[in-house]
Amino acid sequence: MNEFVLDFERPLIELEKKIQDMKDFSSGEDIELSQEIKRLEKRAEKLRAEIFANLTPWQRVRLARHPKRPYTLDYIRLIMEEFVELHGDRRYADDRAIVAGLAKLAGRPVVVVGHQKGRDTKENLRRNFGMAHPEGYRKALRLFRLAAKFHRPVIVFIDTMGAYPGIGAEERGQAEAIATNLKVMSHLPVPIIVSIIGEGASGGALGIGVGDRILMLENAWYSVISPEGCAAILWRDRAKAPQAAEALKLTAQDLMKLGIIDVIVPEPLGGAHRDFKAVAQVLKGKILESLEEISSIPPERLVAQRINKFARMGSIVE
Amino acid sequence: MEWFQKVKRGLKIQKKKDIPDGLWIKCESCGEIIYKNELERNCWVCSKCQYHFRINSAQYVQVLMDDGQLMELDPDLTSTDPLKFKDTKKYSDRIKAAVQKNKMKAAVRVGAGKIAGRPLVAAFLDFSFLGGSMGSVVGEKIARGIRHAIEKRCPIVILSSSGGARMQEGILSLMQMAKTAAFLGQLSDAGLPYISILTHPTTGGVSASFAMLGDVNIAEPGALIGFAGPRVIEQTIGQELPEGFQRTEFLMEHGFVDIIVPRSELKEKIATLLEFLWDEQA
Do A187 and B185 touch (CB under 8 A)? Predict the structure, then answer.
């Protein structure tokens, strides 16, 4: 099997495999073997705790990029009861790097928007690795306006390395598309719950990321620029990405301290990719809680609170 | 022979050089030697090839505001170093050096003043201050400027010149995009006009927030305007970019800039637009 394994996961995965092999081999009668299995399981548990209790920011970035990590459509499948995907921005094209549509969440109709990465090379080409063009942001905008028209809350999933930097994207106004979304989202008269599920880089993330509650998975990252981009500019060396990841304060824990996010969503030990169902259940609970907190606030106050929330962000000396 | 003409007509590439002191200045584009006073009278535009020299916020105040006057709002707001950021240098040292060099405390001047007799709020980003990058202070000053315009019920003009969000303040810089855009939404709700002036260069988090949101977007000729920087795009797609890509004229062709206005006509054009858009209230 062609398993993708991160270097710091390897000792654990190898041990787990060994345990599994022994389990497959023993029929349960061999007492000596089952004792050995128990011993190894204890060791695995300890190892898991050791590795994952002290992740560096760069290790978290790599976990957030784990190709087996759940993506937006996985969460939609596991969290929502029904989903009807809507395509296209009615201007130019359908950008598959962003999925959008109508869904039911705990029996309640909602509008869903999220970045979507591909699982394999073929799908990644189709989805442009989750890096949206202007038409993606304009599709999202169309759905935001639809949500306002029909008084539906908006559920957003963020997972992108950034808005795509290409010729077509510039020709069709990447900057304008993102800017317009920021303005419209900040004033949208319905609740917006944003969850950062993997990567959140720069305007490409924020372009669908203005909301009333910002949730973030434990091993996701969110920053003004990718660690590699930052390293290339400030250190003039992309290999300094681990240092940049450290300096940028991009982990959920950091962002909580900086007052950017509201909720850290815990992941199963070992990362979200180890148990899709478990992490989806936890996330669903947090989304519903957040929605509950704000769904009775009248639209005008909701918008005022949202603007206030972002107005307070920053650090200055008068 | 044709070759000579080509050089003359060729694309005016703006370079990063600051304007040197001295009585005579060589045009960075066509090489013409220009008398400094004449250049100043001509708003730092080469009279021969129309190349727009890069100027700082104080110079733009002179060019645009009546009597060169801007009553600055919050001139003392200063950046902190919330992330204790250090790359090859400490961010706190970078700020100190920029403050000293530019004799201002942030990368933007925001204030109240008049253009052609019309009271308004004006903001001028300054590329010479850490590349005009937007951190907490730039975002906050622009937001307060917008709020001031709403309170005084007057228009706002924002002149952009910025490489984008300031990396050294991390996510806090990113959030200034949302903050400024949110305040512009309130300005729209109040029915007040916003004129955005895009100058060389306007990219990244500044173009993807307030700079692109003008009721009217004006750009100086030949300015680099875009979301991603040209180097990033070249690296991503692995090919050279076409000539004129992401320049003012390209933006106009693709529908993102309303008018191209040379610097010497900016003031007059702003006055005309405001007259057309906005009835001053007593």
Answer: yes
**A65 vs B20, residue with greater confidence:** A65
The pLDDT, as a whole number, for residue A1 is 38
Give which of A224, A253, A310 to mutate to test B binding, by max B Cβ within 10 Å.
A224
Helix axes B170-189, A299-311, angle to 10 degrees: 140
Instruction: Mutate one of A128, A161, A170, A303 to test the B interface: name it (highest B CB count within 10 A).
Output: A170
B205, B228, B256: residue with CB nearest A176 = B256
For range A177-196, the mean pLDDT: 98
Tens of pLDDT along A93-141?
Answer: 999 999 999 999 999 999 999 999 999 999 999 999 999 999 999 999 9
Residue A316 belongs to some domain of the structure:
no
* pLDDT tens, position by position, B188-233: 999 999 999 999 999 999 999 999 999 999 999 999 999 999 999 9
CATH no. for residue A183? 3.90.226.10
Average pLDDT of the segment spanning B252-273: 98
Looking at this predicted complex, what is its ipTM?
0.95
Q: Is residue A318 part of a domain?
A: no
Could you say which of A171, A178, A311 has the minimum Cβ distance to residue B208? A178
A318 touches chain B (CB under 8 A): yes
Say if residue A49 is in the same domain as residue A147. no
Q: Does residue A317 lie within any of the structural domains?
A: no
Beta partners for B110? B123
Q: Is residue B105 a contact partner of residue B160, using CB atoms and an 8 Å limit? A: no
* Helix residue ranges per DSSP H, chain A: 10-25, 31-53, 57-64, 72-79, 121-127, 134-149, 167-171, 174-186, 202-206, 227-230, 241-248, 252-257, 276-294, 299-311
Strands B108-115 and B71-72: antiparallel
Query: Do A45 and A67 belong to one domain?
Result: no
What residue numbers bound the domain in which A277 lies?
60-311
Partner residue facing A247 (CB), from B87, B211, B225: B87
Please, are residues B146 and B186 in contact by the beta-carbon 8 Å criterion? yes
Say whether residue A129 is in contact with chain B using an 8 A CB cutoff.
no
CA distance A175 to B162: 14
CB contacts < 8 A, A to B, total 202
CB contact under 8 A, A224 and B167: yes
The answer to whether the Cβ–Cβ distance between B233 and A317 falls below 8 Å is no
Q: How many domains does chain A have?
A: 2
Regarding whether A186 and A39 lie in a shared domain, the answer is: no
How far apart CA B110 and CA B261 sit, in angstroms, is 22
- Looking at the fold, whether A174 and A26 belong to one and the same domain comes out as no
Q: Which one has a higher pLDDT value, B168 or A24?
A: B168
Going along chain B from its start, the domains and CATH numbers come out as 1-53 (no CATH), 56-277 (3.90.226.10)
Share of chain B above pLDDT 90, in %: 87
CA neighbours closer than 13 Å in the CB half-sphere of residue A167:
10
- pLDDT over threshold 70, residue B143: yes
Residue A45 sits at the chain B interface (C-beta within 8 Å): no
Q: Taking CB atoms and an 8 Å limit, are A175 and B255 in contact across chains?
A: no
